[in-house]
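Below: protein 1.
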Amino acid sequence: MLKLLKDNDVLKFILLLSIASGIGLQGWRTIFNNFAVSEVGINGTWIGIIQSVREIPGLLTLLVIFLTIIFTEYQIISFSTIILGIGVALTGFFPTHFGLLFTTIIMSVGFHYFETTRQSLILQNFEKKDTPMILGYFKSISAISNIIIGIIIFILTSFLSMKMMFLIIGLTVIILACYSYKIKFNRVSPHIQHKKMIFKKKYWLFYVLNLLAGARRQIFVVFAVFLLVKHYN
């Protein structure tokens, strides 16, 4: 894997943006519920509304097909990460119900378009035998980023307000994403991206598992953490 990383600029590019995205999403998710409850005074109904609206950009990621007609996927993934960073950075400046809804949508657009494009680029640029290892590698990198940002937030809570932490995390993501534009590629993708939607009956189990995974996320990641903050402080 290290040899592959050393010789492949595309892998370095995706790795940098994966770290940036991991910092942004985990940072936002760690602070969000505390900020929503203590600063905005949000309740269960509103957390349901915000998190439901948060998934709309995920539903609309099919529109990335049309974006690829105008932009390269390398441009889309970098710009999506910048949008993610902007959404996180602005969160602390809008401590209202609708302000939280607004910044969450911005963050969500960036994250969902980043994630969609990242998977596409990995599948395009690497052989089928290497793809599982590379996907697992990026999953590990995301987990490490989550742990590190969690520790940093734990330390910074004694010195900074949540507003400032949102801003610092968002700016970090934006800076890393902007730096990604400087990476030059020394290879061409061996697999050409389709410019159309593809549905296949044999993939039905994959579709169902993704639907169930989304339901699990809403129940556990969203409402379980909100319950800890709201009812157990």
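Below: protein 2.
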Amino acid sequence: MKRLLVAGICVLASTPPGRAEVPVIDNASLGQLFEQVRQGLQELQLLQQQLEQVMAVYNSLSHVTDLASAVGVLQTLGVQNPLPVNVGSVQALLAGTGSPQGMLGSIGSLFNTNFNANHVYTPTGDSFEATLLQRNATGIAGIQALVGQAYQSMSDRLGAMTQLQQRLATATDAKDVQDLQARLQSEQAYIQSQSAQVQTLAIMQVAAYQSLQQQREEERQKDIDNVLAADPNR
């Protein structure tokens, strides 16, 4: 097509300006040349449209959605479990024989705050009842700290989900929508898991309290048996 166009231009340019005769124009060839130029322009326009479509698809599928800037709290939440994974540590804390030392998040500070707020008197001596009172106080502060940590984590995630939903409502890019929906589902799964953990903590706390009551009853029965054993005639 370019060759024909150049050839036509060369033919027109080859006529000396000083000649008087009018050049003979081949209307059929000239019409064919214009038609080829028109078709070539249409092909270029079609190629340009196809290129724009390919680039739009590429940008939609390959770019990284900057969720972190939209929802900054997700950077700190991550996928971490806000509660201890070691069940032995949790059971010991609830039973009053453990401590929150080494536990993640705000469990330690929440424990100290609750213990000091609830504490009225520290029994003296090392009697069984004095030890049991201290363990019970530790267990209460422990369950309050663990549940408080889980509550704070769920509250943070709910706030993050609100921001994700707002971002999803205004998203126009297919990749943005897909990423936001996936992250929303992930956050919902985290909250459901943490809710199950809190329910499990409640059951463990009831069991720990019943265990303390059982120990108190056993100690009382032990004292009775010792008295009876010392004086069989009673």
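Residues 2-15+23-62 form one domain.
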